[in-house]
Structure formats: C-alpha cells, structure tokens
Specification:
- By secondary structure, the chain is mainly α.
- It has one domain.
- Helices cover about 70% and strands about 0% of the residues.
- It has 1 helix and no strands.
- The longest helix is centred in the middle third of the chain and has 55 residues.
- It is rod-shaped, with a radius of gyration of 35 Å.
- The termini are far apart.
- About 0% of the residues are buried.
Length: about 80
C-alpha cells in the first residue's frame, strides 16, 4: 500500500520538522537582533545630532559675542 499514511511520523519527517522549527526560531532571534541594532543606531545618531547642533549653536553664539576685529594689513615685500 503505497499511498497510505501511517499514524506515526517517520524519523526523517521528525528531523525535518525539527530543522524547520529551529530555523524559524533562529530567524526570529536574528530579526530581533537586527531591530535592536537599528534602535541602537538611531539612538546614537540622535545623540550625535544633538551634540553637533549644540556645538554649532555654541560656535554661533561665540561669533556673535566677539567684536569684529579689523584685519591687519600685510606689508608687501618688494623682490629685487
């Protein structure tokens, strides 16, 4: 009887089901890891952006606080 299924799964079928289950679990772990890394990268980018903006604001306020200094004129050197 070729087409009849038995009530008990074969060892190959059990092994295949285990491999599929393990692959699915590993895939879920990998996706969670990717998401955690993406969150960490976004947080770091946000932190760096805040630092850059603070530095730019500090530089801008420093430039407005300083009086304009006249540029010194350089003497021309005549070559002979």
């Amino acid at each position: 009887m070729v087409g009849k299924k038995s009530a008990e799964p074969s060892p190959e079928r059990i092994a295949r089901a285990n491999r599929q289950r393990l692959a699915q679990e590993e895939g879920l772990r990998a996706m969670a890891d990717v998401e955690q890394r993406a969150v960490a990268i976004r947080k770091n980018m946000e932190r760096l952006r805040a630092l850059r903006q603070a530095k730019e604001a500090q530089v801008a306020s420093d430039q407005t606080a300083l009086p304009d200094m006249p540029k010194k004129k350089r003497k021309k050197v005549l070559s002979k």
